Amino acid sequence: GAVVSQHPSWVICKSGTSVKIECRSLDFQATTMFWYRQFPKQSLMLMATSNEGSKATYEQGVEKDKFLINHASLTLSTLTVTSAHPEDSSFYICSARPAGLNTGELFFGEGSRLTVL
Amino acid sequence: AQSVTQPDIHITVSEGASLELRCNYSYGATPYLFWYVQSPGQGLQLLLKYFSGDTLVQGIKGFEAEFKRSQSSFNLRKPSVHWSDAAEYFCAPVKQTNFGNEKLTFGTGTRLTIIP
Question: What is the pLDDT of residues A68-84, one digit of tens each?
Answer without folding.
Answer: 999 989 999 999 999 99
